[in-house]
Amino acid sequence: MGVDLSDLVEDVKAEINLAELRGKKVSIDAYNAIYQFLTAIRQPDGTPLIDSQGKITSHLSGIFYRTINLMENGIIPIYVFDGKPPELKSAELQRRKKIKEEAEKKLEKAKEEGKTTELKKYSQMATRLTNEMADEGKKLLKSMGIPIVEAPSEGEAESAYINAIGLSFATASQDYDSLLFGAKNLIRNLTITGKRKLPNKDIYVEIKPERIELEPLLKKLGITREQLIDIAILIGTDYDPSGIKGIGPKTAYRLIKKYGRIEKIIEANEIPKNSIDFDINQIRQLFLNPNVKKPEENLDLQNPEEQEIIEILVNQHNFNEERVKSALERLNKAIKETKGLSRQTGLDQWF
DNA sequence: CTGCTGTA
DNA sequence: TACAGCAGG
């Protein structure tokens, strides 16, 4: 989970048409995307898609079809994979692990009792993204000719950095953390089909892609990125998951506007000093100067290796060959058109 | 989440 | 053609 800044971005977020992204590169936090596929691509009883060996394949289905859809819309995704998480994230990762272990227990119980709604809920909560799944995703994307980047640390930070130095038009993520990391242009809800299921309910709502630009956001709020980061720290980030008790986005914003920075808020006795049991400066640095690198990887599209894709999806994971082949036709057509787009604009960079 | 099929 | 409902692996 990232920090919840939804209340603060309300006024600057704008719905966008996918057409606006035609011919543009978009960097994507791969873990974020894969995790969504793992939780969403399931049967009504909560079982994920699996191959004949019982191995989960939901992530491969999601990556494959979503990527082709993006390409058909002229959008070139750059998938950014996580490296080693920062030390400061270990408490949060531990917390998530514990939640999953509890969900696994409840899942077993629900199985025994045959409660289907519980079954679905807990199997989603128990979802784990393994290194093997990430590796399979990388391999599939490579064979599709899609650029991938291996981040030194957090994928979301690297994706934001790629955007900040102009190697992508936008960064796509569900979390707002990208903005804290300095992304200029954040796109949320980057999906093609507009319907999405509400959590734990069988209701579908229309979801449209939206854009939030960092500079207009800061201008509108009348604060600096440093101050936005302080707001996030007060609310709670992955590095201080519980934040300050009783402080949400609105209060955090008000306090930062009034006092400028967290230390001053403490001095003014607006929050108890002992409510901060973490190193503020260390967290600030993780957002302001994250461990990122200029990608050495080639960020241009390559030609897809069809045989390799069929080997992975059909031979190894029991995807339907005809479905895969028809999707590959769409991919090839999309690549031709996208290359045509770049020729028309006379640029070899796809902007 | 996304693709595909059946229905009007 | 458009869209609901189910299947995918």
Written overview of the protein:
Strand 5, helix 8 and strand 6 form a beta-alpha-beta unit. The radius of gyration is 21 Å and the shape is globular. It is an alpha/beta fold and 351 residues long. The longest helix has 25 residues, at 321-345. It contains 15 helices and nine strands. The two termini are 30 Å apart. The chain has a seven-stranded mixed beta sheet with strand order 1-9-6-5-2-3-4, sandwiched between helices. A two-stranded antiparallel ribbon has the order 7-8. Helix content is 49%, strand content 9%. It folds into two domains: 6-218, 5'-nuclease (Rossmann fold); 222-288, Orthogonal Bundle (DNA polymerase, domain 1). Residues 346-351 have low confidence and may be disordered.
Number of domains: 2
CATH class descriptor name of the largest domain: Alpha Beta
Task: Give the proportion of residues in helices.
Answer: 40-55%
Strand order of the largest sheet: 1-9-6-5-2-3-4
Radius of gyration: 21 Å
Distinct helical segment count: 15
Biggest sheet overview? 7 strands, mixed
Which word captures the global form?
A: globular
- Extract low-pLDDT stretches: 346-351
Could you state the CATH homologous superfamily of the largest domain? Answer: 5'-nuclease
- The overall pLDDT, averaged over residues, is 92
Per DSSP E runs of 2 or more residues, the count of β-strands stands at 9
* Order of secondary-structure elements: HEEHHEHHHEHEHEEEEHHHHHHH
What is the architecture of the largest domain at the second tier of CATH? 3-Layer(aba) Sandwich
Question: Which structural class best describes the helix and strand composition?
Answer: alpha/beta
Strand content: 5-15%
Could you tell me how far the N terminus lies from the C terminus, measured between alpha carbons in angstroms? 30 Å
